[in-house]
Amino acid sequence: MWNVLLSFSGLVALIQLLFLPFFPESPPYLLLQKGDKAGCLKAMKQLWGEGNYHTEFDDLMKEKAVTKGTKIMNVLEVLKEPSVYPQLSTMLLLLMSLQLCGLSATANLQESIIPYVSLGVAISELISIIFCSSIIDRFGRRILLWGGYLLMALILVLLETSLLLSGQFLWMRYCSVILIFLFLIAYGIGP
Question: What positions does the domain Major facilitator superfamily (MFS) profile occupy (predicted)?
Answer without folding.
Answer: 1-191
